[in-house]
Amino acid sequence: MTNGYEKLLVDLAMARVDFIVVGGVAVAFAGYVRATEDVDIIVQADDANVQRLLSALEDFGEGHARELSASDFTMEEGAVRVVEDFPLDIFTKMSGHVYEDLLSSTGDHQVGETTIRYLNAEGLIQLKENSLRPRDRQDVQALRQITGDSIA
Prior knowledge:
The chain has one domain: Beta Polymerase, domain 2. Helices cover about 35% and strands about 25% of the residues. The protein has 6 helices and 8 strands; from the N terminus they run αβαβαββββαββαα. The strands form 3 sheets. Strands 1-2-4-3 form a 4-stranded mixed β-sheet. Strands 5-6 form a two-stranded antiparallel ribbon. It has a two-stranded antiparallel sheet with strand order 7-8. The mean pLDDT is about 90.
């Protein structure tokens, strides 16, 4: 295990939490490595999955996630942020998309014996292409080069 975020992602996968890594970590998994300060995931918002998530987060960092409850995970835009050694942003809806919408655009990243699902380059391009954030625009340009998509 090389870093804390990989340990967290493995812990979530081992707890059978249905999630997809999005954001900067997913961009790195897709082939464009850049600095990122947080981990972004989108989770399936059903009650059983949220309970698995909450249980898995009980031992994350200093335990700040223990203050979360299932009612924090509504089907609204925006993230629940847990700040420990690094910030973890947990989405149930992102840019109008829910977990199920993104499943067909995922790839698998191996961490040891554990498979971590992440939003692939095409999915990231689709998610970020209308963003005004400079970092997102850079990501889209780099991901298009990786995929051979020449649309500017």
